[in-house]
Amino acid sequence: MSVKLYFIIVLVLVSISLVGCSNKEINYESMAQHKDLFEETEHGSINMTFALLNGDDIRTFHTKPGKKYDFNYTYLITEGFIALQFRDSEDNVLDEILLSAEEYKSEKLKLESEHDGAVNMDEFGSMRTIISKDNEIKIVISGKDAKGKLHIKW
């Protein structure tokens, strides 16, 4: 076998192994009870709008231990309550964010008093950095009679 052919074979095998190791999928582990759900989910983004969310939506993706992931999220919960959790593969909670209609209602009243009338609130937003503890991060969206929208990007 010539050196050139040997080099090409090694290059192809290395390329296949690198592509095979980069898992860019979102896995659906659990679906909550929904009404009028619109969801667009792909690796790096979860975008949901719903008239009702009760229970747990769990989405997982492959990670590298010790790697930092910045999660930017925007939301508007107009009814009910959502707990947004980030977990490892063993279901240990890495971080938790509580989102509720109370925040929406209090901010809306505050803005209406400041602006002498009705206001239209589009969304709230923030960012969290999560350090992966193992080979997986689970994004758990737990709703209790929740209505609204949620967009998470990483």
Task: Write up this protein.
With 154 residues, this protein is α+β, with helices and mostly antiparallel strands. 22% of the residues lie in helices and 55% in strands. It is built from two helices and eight strands; from the N terminus they run αββββββαββ. Strands 1, 2, 3, 4, 5, 6, 7 and 8 form an eight-stranded antiparallel beta sheet that branches. The longest helix is centred in the N-terminal third of the chain and has 19 residues, at 3-21. The model has no long low-confidence stretch (mean pLDDT 89).
Q: Treating each run of at least 4 consecutive H or I residues as one helix, how many helices?
A: 2
Give the SSE order as H and E letters.
HEEEEEEHEE
Q: Output the structural class.
A: alpha+beta
Amount of helix: 10-25%
Query: Beta-strand level of the residues, as a percent range?
Result: over 45%
Uncertain stretches: none
Largest sheet: 8 strands, antiparallel
Number of β-strand runs: 8
**In angstroms, what is the radius of gyration?**
21 Å
Shape: elongated
Cα separation of the termini: 46 Å
Query: What is the arithmetic mean of pLDDT?
Result: 89
